[in-house]
Structure formats: C-alpha cells, structure tokens
Amino acid sequence: MAHGHGPEHGRSKMELPDYRRWKIEGTPSETVQKTLAARGYMCGFAKKVTFFDVFFKGFKWRFPAFVVAVGAEYYLDSLNKDKKHH
Fold first, then answer.
1. Rounded to an integer, what distance in angstroms lies between the CA atom of residue 26 and that of residue 33?
2. CA spacing 20 to 30 A to 53: which of 9, 37, 45, 75?
C-alpha cells in the first residue's frame, strides 16, 4: 500500500515544471532587472565562472594569511627546539 505517497513499486520519473510558465516578462521582476541593467549591474549568476575565478577568489587575503601562519609556525617551532627530548 502506498498510502497516497506516490507509486507503490519502483521509481517514477521526476516531473520538471514547464519553463514557459516561469518567465519574468511582464512582471515586476522584469522592471527591476531592467533598472539594474541600466545602472550597469550584471547579476552574479549571469557571469561566466572561469578556472581563475574559482581558484583565485579571495587570493589577496588568503595568501597573506597563509604567509603569516607559516611565519608564526616557524617562530613558535624555533622557541621549542631546546625543549624537544628526542
């Protein structure tokens, strides 16, 4: 018994909504989109994502943080060299 929760056996195909139903033409969203486009705003979803964007996003902050962390590690390691018992 399925109890009204879909087919009893096997998998059913996923039904996708009709793409024509979800267009923004003639809606307030279209007006907002045109206003933002006139101001030069390009939605982040419309921008092509490149290999460079993925790996170097935030690089100007991550690289200096990495250098500081490595420097702190070497400094703290040099303080503990005389305390090692091996």
1. 12
2. 37
